[in-house]
């Protein structure tokens, strides 16, 4: 595996090189002191991961990673930054998969690189890597985006209202959670729901991020996106009812079909093609995208496996089963009856269908 580090300060690169030698990493490392030098080296040998400083002369980290994205889309892109102006935040969100605050602990950085390489090894399927490589933004519902902007522009903004609107849209939720779960803002454990993400980031940071950025502002009305947003919200609400709490299951249900926001992945009326290990391609693509963005791995694993719960070996109706049922019913399909029978939950299906009917009769917008 090839990892490239880019920083205009040679002493920083020397420190990383020394730390790598002590870490006994099992990847090959290369070092560049500028964006142009890094691009020239990548032309000779592409890298699996590029780690770049943000603030560099001539070509900063965001510009470098934008070129890496366009020319080597399968490369995982990590950015190091010591400042958080809104414009810089927007530009980093546009091009980077992961964010790390400077100065950073080398052990934490190497752990992130190791997990990124493991992730890449897990999703080796060229179809998955090719589809995801250039994706940093997904289309949000223009209606939801407008409502969020209106809410956060008000001086009396209510965090709960903002969280509810953000939590109704898969694209907006995933992006806010990407930032909240990044090492740039991390203060410990992983964030599993949008309300906790906003609390973690702080309302002012969310306001600056949304109002100062344009990564959703150019969204155009798209009936498909609106329909997907509606079904995802319905699945999330149903998962919350079944689970009896907020958090993991509602979030995973909201994001379960996030890959369908990518034009190449939209349903054509037939079955989703299979990726490696016979996982539906849209499930693999969605899981890989969320994992690249640093969302918790338990959410990633549910997104990857929710369409085929019987592949789970524990035989227990758990978070995966809840999301499977909620997503299936919200999309007007029947859950896997064999799986429900094996887990002793088939008799609950009429109750869940009634929950869905009640939710459909309750306005949420």
TrEMBL record:
Domain HDOD positions: 138-309
Annotated ranges, domain Response regulatory: 2-117
Tree of life domain: Bacteria
Keyword Mitochondrion: no
Residues the record lists as 4-aspartylphosphate modifications: 53
Source organism: Kosakonia oryzendophytica
Keyword Cell inner membrane carried by entry: no
BP GO terms, sorted: phosphorelay signal transduction system
Keywords: Phosphoprotein
Protein name in UniProt: HD-like signal output (HDOD) domain, no enzymatic activity
